Amino acid sequence: MQAGLATAPRGTLDLLLLELKALGISTAREQGSAVAFEADLAGFYRACLHSRVASRVLWVLASLPAPDPDSLYRAASSIDWSAHVPEGGTIAVDFSTVRSLITHTHYGALKVKDAIVDQLRDRPSGRPSVDTERPSVRVSVRLSANIATFAIDFAGESLHRRGYRGDGVAAPLKENLGAALLLRCGWADLANNGAAFLDPMCGSGTLAIEAALIAANIAPGLSRDWYGFMGWVGHDAALFESLREQARLAIDRRALVPGRIVGSDRDPRGLRAGRQSLAHLGLDGLVSFVERDVADMVPQSSSGLLLCNPPYGERIGAEDELPALYRDLGARLREHFLGWTAGVFTGNPGLGQEMGLNARRTHRLFNGALECRLLRFAVESDQFVTKRKPGELPAPNPVRAMSPGAQMFANRLRKNLTAMTRWAKNEGVSCYRLYDADMPEYAFAIDLYGPEPVHAYVQEYAAPATVAEERVRERRADALAAIPEALGLEREFIHVRVRRRSRGGEQYTKMDDSGEFHEVRESGLKFWVNFTDYLDTGLFLDHRLTRERIGEMARGKKFLNLFAYTCTATVHAAAGGARETVSVDMSNTYLDWGWQNLSLNGFAQPQHELIQADALHYIREATARFDLIFLDPPTFSNSKRMESTLDIQRDHVDLVQATSRLLTAGGVLLFSTNNTRFRLDSGALDGLDVQDISAQTIPRDYERSPRIHRCYVITARTTA
């Protein structure tokens, strides 16, 4: 078995993971911005042939330390390139770098290229030459945290290039992203059940063609005439051809009943390009391309999927024409497409309000570098909304009138909102707790995240076993009826989850795969939060004042952030002028998230180092070089990824003493815990002065929960 990596457009990694597992690659797992797996050669070939979402499939050779150019050259030289590059062959090197001292990608690629050609210069055919277009072997080097991963790029060129697109046809949507949108909207199951498909703004037909490939079980890689592995020394041509033949035999063209899959557009040039693509695939006449305006679209059956990627202003002229386009789309859906599923992939998500429909789900994805949203709708009569002026409250839910209890709950929310909005505006606070079980019978915590658009994150505290399930359901229904009305928010901006006592290591467990991230503000800084995929959003609001204190203390200092999570404290330290920061966490997912937070604020620089490690192990191995340390461990963890269990009440003395040894003379340790029953054993902290600053770090919006966390300033005791 061979180690591999597969990449995909941002926001689609979970779909790629499911694809690889469906192909029999059971070892697949998310690893940072890629899916890691182990497979035999046939598994790699299947991934290239059958993955609809993947961009690259990489045959990993080695992962080696490369903190500087010389070590990068030595690492590349340690690989036997004669086992990969054929006699007389050509090479190309793709190089990427994050969180590393080598920041120039072209320079890194040159160092690796030099190492390869220097090793092979004595061959009979001489040193290999460089061919950036179609080399015999394309080498991929991914440098992350000064570790270089060397691989052979089996794709050669991005797998979104299926081979059916005619020369000179520029599509606004890459084929693998189009396939991901279809899969996200459930098209695979809909297609199996005979549903229809319509793209009313199809352009050159990417979505309609990808829908046909899925419906007829046509492997997306069958039309390609070249892959990166075809010039590789280890390529098994007979094996690959046998897998291609199996893919051909699995095609079911009977699924492509003429008229079932339709693309329409008012631009005939795009439609001609779509028909040419169908001819390349041998699917002439099996997908319909029709010249038609959005305002004239009609369903071809009683149920199906309508999915489109409206223009961002370029294809139809001025951007001020777009609201009318969205209104036309929404009107036709409401009037003619009841019972259909719909998806709108947009770079202008605010225009979704023009459609007069409530989105059941939204997903954050990227079309190249452009951040977009996929809005998903079930076109049903109770999903229709009426337009209202900004700030105007929505009408009560017509399906469920509010009970007297729900009305009291709504009144409390309005009262809190009036008071907290005034405070938040005066203090410049955009994210804060609005409500925390103020009425015991409505045991919810409600946090607002801004600026615009404001999202409400609603956590329902799990009810005791003594409370009947029917009463729990009634309470939840009351709350969900009251919250949109009281806060003036559409349902798509309200995120609900049940909050239970977490088990050790659960902070690293993924709950969902929406890939939806939202930019919020705090103290003039920007952060990414996620309301659906993880146990927490990525920003602990009760630590707002603690982070501000870190920023004030950090100027000119070396800062260490232990159990760093998404590195929000590190961002504050960097903004405060820290000379150097080190952030340690066990999760690569959270460290990548942290790096995005640093990048969002302009701090993606070598002096801000992120280390994936068990913080307990790091504390034992590190040396005393930090002027300021933030130690914020979980209350309890028995994660398999840790070397030992952690119980903060039991272990805090040893943990604090060990961490304090990493301080320079005069250094400061900020120790914080969210264990509401925590008791500090200050008498056992030999040689340390401890100041309890908990009351000073509880923000106003958490005053109703004064034990939400404990926070201490710890320094070495001075002797007379």
CATH architecture descriptor of the largest domain: 3-Layer(aba) Sandwich
Instruction: Tally the structural domains.
Output: 4
How large, in whole angstroms, is the Cα Rg? 28 Å
Strand order within the widest beta sheet: 2-3-1-4-8-7-5-6
The average pLDDT is: 88
CATH superfamily of the largest domain: Vaccinia Virus protein VP39
* Main beta sheet: 8 strands, mixed
CATH topology of the largest domain: Rossmann fold
Envelope shape: flat
Classify the helix fraction into a percent range. Answer: 25-40%
Separation of the first and last Cα atoms: 65 Å
Q: Mind explaining what this structure looks like?
A:
By secondary structure, the chain is α/β, with parallel strands linked by helices. It has 4 domains: 2-153, 2-Layer Sandwich (VC0802-like), CATH 3.30.2130.30; 175-218 and 253-383, Rossmann fold (3-Layer(aba) Sandwich); 404-500, Transcription Regulator spoIIAA (2-Layer Sandwich), CATH 3.30.750; 518-716, Vaccinia Virus protein VP39 (Rossmann fold, 3-Layer(aba) Sandwich), CATH 3.40.50.150. 29% of the residues lie in helices and 24% in strands. The protein has an 8-stranded mixed sheet with strand order 2-3-1-4-8-7-5-6. The longest helix has 24 residues, at 404-427. Residues 314-318, 382-400 and 501-508 have low confidence and may be disordered.
